[in-house]
Amino acid sequence: MTRFTAQLTTQLDRLGHHGVRRGGRDRAPTLVAVAHGSRDPEALRSVNALLDRVRALRPGLPVRLGHIELNQPLLTDTLAALRGEAVLVPLLLSRGYHVKQDIPDAIAAAPHLTARIAAPLGPDPLLAEALHARLAEAGSRAEAGSPAEAGRRAAAPHRTGGVVLAAAGSRDPDAALDTARTAALLSARLGGAPVLPGYASGSGPTVPEAVRALAALGHDRIAVASYFTAPGRFATQCASVAPGPAAAPLGAHPAVARLVLRRYEQALASAPLSHPAATVGV
Length: 282
Hints:
Elements: H1 3-15, E1 30-35, H2 41-57, E2 63-67, H3 75-81, E3 84-90, H4 97-108, E4 113-117, H5 125-142, H6 147-160, E5 162-167, H7 173-189, E6 195-199, H8 207-216, E7 222-226, H9 233-240, H10 254-270, E8 278-279
Parallel strand pairs: 1-2, 1-3, 3-4, 4-8, 5-6, 5-7
């Protein structure tokens, strides 16, 4: 057991079952999952499936959803309907404007709440695990054959080729740093295969540019890992330019559900809830 794991286990033991601190609050603070929102109807279905997994992992924990834009319920409406204590967990994969500005602004507009903002989901080894699984799924679906052969072919792009980590992009340099850290984690999970970030917007190389960079290095089997929480325009756009397997977004992968709870628990363990809201680990 690592030092971090031991410390986290001790902290969670102090919190008690369902995040209720022994001798303290009687009800666990509400976990408010903050999604970006998308016009793609699959996005809302994917986020709801993820939150169903979270609820299954922690029965009795109140879990609510709020969107920054484009989907109902909006975060401001979710917060307006709540009372008591809440921990906002951004279903976002890096630091950036939404984490640093939009979510704190929503909390500031809800002075009746006692709340904290957890760190975004990324970077984290659990995301690398989910990305690895999605890449394997894409490879095994793309090529037919026996189960053993399909497994070898699914792994082939990881061993002999490269991977583009397709992300939304941001002008915030912290977002680029976070995405680069995830690329490094995924590379390690893939046994050292090269992983280059490519972006749908903002600064930095586009997905086609990252593909060309890998090809210039001699990698002729290139997969695209979809570093998006849910389906949407950017995920579709990035998948459309993949020269090889294009993985599905993270979606309701079990590792992502575990990570949502990890961020919630880390926020609770960091300090007592207070208002105005504090941001943990951002």
